């Protein structure tokens, strides 16, 4: 918490990159930092805004990563989210598709990883890969993939250059308001996998 002698104060709720690096990041380091544990819950944001309302963090895993100072715009960054057991549930890239879907009822534009040299922050919304769109086919609903079940996930970065593949663990904990045990979540995951 930082306050001024006036009427303002700021609350910084995530200093993971500073705490884990000791505040000393090497300019040429390619690294990802372990995010705080994340509670899986569904939330809705009101369409109306108020000048007295604060901005809450996005629901999901928010994590930081560091790209070397030699990073250039033509290099590609990729993120893989890996479930326990080794299955890749989500893949994201810094390169936007050349032909983004653009029809009514089609999939939304994919999220793109930021790639400025130095520290970057990204938000994984706890969803698996979206379902592919069929050109000019209207889907009443969403192409979003299902939300993953609670558990431990590996966040793995890689690049189009040989810079290594740093990893960090993301812990997703269940919503404490829901009465369910590990077997219930495993059954849910099996059902989701069978549908996809």
Walk me through the structure:
This protein has two helices and ten strands; from the N terminus they run E-E-H-E-E-E-E-E-E-E-E-H. The protein has 196 residues and is mostly beta strands. Strands 4-10-9-6-7 form a five-stranded mixed sheet, with no helix packed on it. Strands 3-5-8 form a three-stranded antiparallel sheet, with no helix packed on it. Strands 1-2 form a two-stranded antiparallel sheet. A hairpin with a 5-residue loop joins strand 1 and strand 2 (9-10). The N and C termini lie far apart (45 Å). The mean pLDDT is 86.
Task: Please tag this protein with its features.
2 helices, mainly beta, globular, 10% helix, five-stranded mixed beta sheet, 10 strands, 196 residues
Percent of residues in beta strands:
25-35%
Q: Could you say which overall geometry the principal axes of the C-alpha atoms support?
A: globular
Mean pLDDT across all amino acids:
86
What strand order characterises the main sheet? 4-10-9-6-7
* Radius of gyration, whole Å: 19 Å
Which assembly state applies to the chains in this document?
A: single chain
Poorly predicted ranges: none
**Which secondary-structure class do the elements indicate?**
mainly beta
Order of helices and strands: EEHEEEEEEEEH
**Could you give a short account of the major beta sheet?**
5 strands, mixed
Roughly how many Å apart are the termini? 45 Å
The strand count comes to 10
Helical proportion?
10-25%
Per DSSP, the total helix count is 2
Summed up:
The chain has helices at residues 16-21, 182-195, and strands at 2-3, 9-10, 31-32, 38-39, 61-67, 77-83, 88-93, 118-124, 151-159, 167-173. With 196 residues, it is mainly β.
